[in-house]
Amino acid sequence: MYYDKFMLRYSSRLIFGVMKPNPAVYLVNVNNETEVDQFNQVLGNLMSNLKDEASLGYSYRKYATDNATATNFQTLYGMVQCTPDLSQQDCFDCLDRAVSQIPNCCNGKIGGRVLTPSCSIRYENYSFYEPTPMLYPPSTLNTSSTNSTSSQGTLHIFVNWFQQKHANYLILTWWSQNKCLC
Length: 182
What we know:
Elements: E1 25-28, H1 36-55, E2 63-69, E3 75-82, H2 88-100, H3 102-106, E4 112-115, E5 119-124, E6 142-150, E7 153-164, E8 167-176, E9 179-180
Antiparallel strand pairs: 1-4, 2-3, 3-5, 4-5, 6-7, 7-8, 8-9
Helix pairs in contact: 1-2
C-alpha cells in the first residue's frame, strides 16, 4: 500500500535487506512541460545527484531531497528514498531502475512518481516535501524481545522501532526453532 507519506509492505517471505524493484506503480502529473529536452536534462541531473546522496545514507535513512532551476526559471523539486534495510549498492540500483523508468511513464510531464516495494522517486514543479533536518546515527534503537514457550518450542518476537523523515518503521520478526516465520 502506498500513501503520500508512508508505504506498508507485508510478505510471507523474508523481505528485510532484499531489494525488490517490481512491481512498480507510476503516478503522473497531467500537465505537460513545453521545453521537454531542457527539462529532461535538468531532471536527469537532479535525480542523479539525489540517488547518489540517498544511497550513501546511514542504515536508518536512505532519503534525499533537492531542487533545481528548470525551464522558464521554474523550480523543479525532487525526492528519492529507499527502505533503510537496503545496502548502499541495492539502494543505488533500485533508484537507478526507478529513474530509468521516467522516460517510459512520465516523459514530458512536469511531475511524476515511480513507486516500488524497495524505493521510490518523485519530482514536481512545486514543493511537496518539508526541509530535511540533519539526523545522526542513533546510539541505540528501541528494541524489545519477548519469548513465549509452548509445547512445540520457543517463539521469539523481536520488535524494532525507529523513526525517519515523515515515517515510523516497525519491524516485527518472529523466530521459532531457528526458523524465521517472516
